[in-house]
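Dear colleague,

Following up on Tuesday's group meeting, I ran the structure prediction for the two-component complex that the binding team flagged. I've pasted the input sequences exactly as they went in, so you can double-check that nothing got truncated or mislabelled along the way. The structure tokens for the whole assembly follow below. Feel free to forward this to whoever is handling the docking comparison.

Inputs:
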Amino acid sequence: MTIDVLYFAWVRERIGLPREKVVTQAATVAALVDELRGREERYAAAFADLSALRVALDQELSEFDAPLDGVREVAFFPPMTGG
Amino acid sequence: MSVRVQAEPFDAGAETAGFTAAQHDAGAVVTFTGIVRDVEGGLLRMEIEHYPGMTQSAIARIAEEAVSRWSLADVLVIHRFGALTPGEPIMMVATAARHRAEAFAAAEFLMDYLKSRAPFWKKEITREGAAWVEARDADEDALRRW
């Protein structure tokens, strides 16, 4: 499956791009993160500490153990600082 | 209910006047305006990034929750993104209810949730460099009281 993967704030800066299409068979967000970590050092650096990251699936806040089945858009970002 | 996510500045006074004038059954209007705070070392600007596909719906859901919990007559949320300078309004909320207790509580609820559940990220640019504003544990703790 092909998923749109989006990065925001320092995750975007560390990886060096705002979004990309990723072809993956990963069953969960955590499995996708493992695949991305294995790509290049900049991904490994961005995903070094998952407790510092949040994930949204199809624009809804989710968890790293959530399944990717049917998901079209995954976004990774640091804790939000609105208001 | 009105939710606006925009790069353009807004006039908090005019928004408050318009929101208040539109109410008929409410006895209380509470507003809060957040402005860009300067930091030591001199803030040149604050850059606010957001997640365009998610921001509007995430805020709308928070606002709907506030309306149903406090039986609000109306709610307004405006949140800006892009580059802002110290003293500029970043965002505002307005709540209208029959009585002030509901309007105050709903405004606080909105602020607590917008802080850590609306997909915005702030970056402060000073003469010394740029740094992302980190979320505080206190922000997350604030959600537990609701």
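The beta strands of chain A are 2-7, 19-23, 54-57, 60-62, 73-77.

Cheers,
M.
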